[in-house]
Design brief:
There is one protein chain. The chain is 75% helix and 0% strand. The two termini are 36 Å apart. By secondary structure, it is mainly alpha-helical. The chain is flat. The longest helix is centred in the middle third of the chain and has 19 residues, at 22-40.
């Protein structure tokens, strides 16, 4: 880190400043879903949303 001119304290501070809170992430998610719905009509049900979240792990399990 010294060669980059930064410290652990600066890295932690940068992380804290630039990492969104849970509320900020929820708001971004809500805005994204509204935009997807407006642009494409995409409006998954909670069940479809959970299935989409599980799909990458299922696929990775298939190849492992």
């Amino acid at each position: 880190m010294a060669e980059k001119g930064t410290t652990i304290a600066q890295l932690v501070s940068d992380f804290a400043v630039h990492t969104p809170t849970e509320d900020e992430r929820a708001e971004r998610t809500a805005r994204t879903l509204v935009a997807l719905n407006e642009m494409s009509g995409y409006a998954p049900s909670p069940k479809q949303d959970r299935a989409a979240d599980a799909e990458p792990a299922r696929r990775l399990g298939d190849i492992a």
